[in-house]
Amino acid sequence: MGLLIGEYGISLMMLGQAELPPYKGSTFRGVFGKSLKQVVCALKHQECADCLLREKCIYYRVFESANTGEARTKGSLTHPFVIEPPDCKKVNYNKGDLIQCKLILFGWANEYLPYFVYAFNEMGRFGIGKRIQGKRGTFELDQVETPSGIVYNKYSKSIKKHTAREFKYEDFEDAAPECSSLVVELHTPLRLKVGNQYSNKLDFQTLIRACLRRISTLHSCFGDCEPKLDYRGMVAKARSIVTLDSSAKWFDWTRYSSRQNESMLMGGLLGKMRYKGELSVFLPLLNYCEKVHLGKGTTFGLGKIGLRTDNNEENPL
Fold first, then answer.
1. Rounded to whole angstroms, how far apart are CA atoms 115 and 235?
2. End-to-end CA distance of the chain, in Å?
3. How many other CB atoms are there within 10 angstroms of residue 133's CB atom?
4. What is the pTM of this model?
5. How far apart are CA 269 and CA 201, in angstroms?
6. CATH architecture type of domain 169-309
7. Cβ(113)–Cβ(105) under 8 Å?
8. Domain chopping of the chain, boundaries
9. Which of 6, 70, 226, 270 is least surrounded, with the fewest CB atoms within 10 Å of its CB?
10. Phi, psi (degrees; rounded to nearest 5) at 134
């Protein structure tokens, strides 16, 4: 009942000037998709839906298969990766500057790491950010690092053999401490729908529903099977958790979709919430989702959360 989760730290070295937005999730996700298709597509002028090779194509499996009618019927509207953009608001970069981001792969996608690495190389050739004197900022892939060590660098040009770690829900249960007060921080915009509308507040029940949905979907799509969780029971218990304080506010940002040829609003909640109650039973869910993100737009790095046990409820958020 496990799920393979590969965590790959990506280091990029700028080869010239670049101007990037404060939140870089759309920049990296957009160019990454273009680069991966360039790397693997054998019939570049063929629409994916009509391509005879699509069932064996890594680009189709990663980007397109979750958009099919069959996937919607099965409820598997998710992708096997997350790109965590640089955790800073810096916008101006110069030659020699390093940019750090993170690639998270789920399940079978870890087997195709060489394709993802090569796609990042191609991203550097295409360039990122606004054009400066008619040219986007180019970079080279400096290295790729896992929690156990470096698996690629620009000198070796090869990928060391490695194994993604298998995570089981039970592993998080075993490590859960007693907790009666908790601060949840939304590091990147969190997009959750409540009653078919995006919510501008986050009660604890809504948060737990999102965690259950995320873990269930990832395990059913990319793992062995869903973990045995008491979904109804946990949602019912979540109703008793009180929100003591919240600094969460809606943050709007815009991305351009080349697929739809239009700008799209991708806003979400940012900030912190302090919850109080019998929270220990929920910590495995929340700790798990710290790794895999929550809500809509996770491939852009949205929905990254952080946790802090809070023994002093008088501390300001």
1. 40
2. 37
3. 6
4. 0.91
5. 7
6. 2-Layer Sandwich (3.30)
7. yes
8. 2-163, 169-309
9. 70
10. 80, 5
